[in-house]
Amino acid sequence: MTSLSEKELQEISEIVSSFPEEQREAKARELLQETSSNGSQQCPFCLMTEKKIQTVNVYEDEDFLGVLEINPANPGHILLFPKQHILNLSELQDSKLPALVRIIKNLETALLKIADGTNIYSASDQVAGQRYPHLVINIIPRYKGDKIHMVWEPKPISETELIQMKDKILSHMPKKLQKERLKDEEIILSKEIISSEQRFKGVVYY
Ligand SMILES: [Zn+2]
Predict the structure, then answer these.
(1) How many distinct structural domains can be found in the chain?
(2) Cα 178 to middle of ligand 1, angstroms
(3) Which of 17, 73, 130, 205 would give a disulfide with 123, using CB separation of 3.0 to 4.6 Å?
(4) What is the whole-number distance in angstroms between the Cα of residue 148 and the centre of ligand 1?
(5) Residue 147 is part of which domain span?
(6) What is the pLDDT of residues 55-93, one digit of tens each?
């Protein structure tokens, strides 16, 4: 998604390089938004992939790039994204999912060695807080008393509404996964029956 001309990118690059290193990425994002020649926003994650914005990388392979957020929620805040310009996880090829999960696991494991906990989240669409239409997974190290608040006010919902919502979600999932999910429910149910029977007999398997 590089809709700017070479000249425009050159100008932005010159302006950005006059700023202290730690401010460059933020300044580049700002200028790219202002300068975009077709009125749409230039995608900073594509520019990072193309090495047109300087980044501090913690992971890179042919499909994914993991960089340190320069305006972090906490130091060590990682932005992990595909090099392909896609909106969200639903647009990611299934063949790339195992690699993505493995990378997330390894980055989270590393952060857990230096922090007290982590949050992992991804926003899809502006209404969810997505600023650029490019899939990004935020992996945020958490520390006791770090004053980050990820909160929402719980909304009341009835059991009927829960079941209706379940049906609605399942109707949009691949048939194969719906069957697997049902199988899982049956297994859980049968495990519960077995364990309650065994408990009744005084035998507990956990
Ligand atoms: Zn992009």
Answers:
(1) 3
(2) 32
(3) 130
(4) 27
(5) 55-151
(6) 999 999 999 999 999 999 999 999 999 999 999 999 999
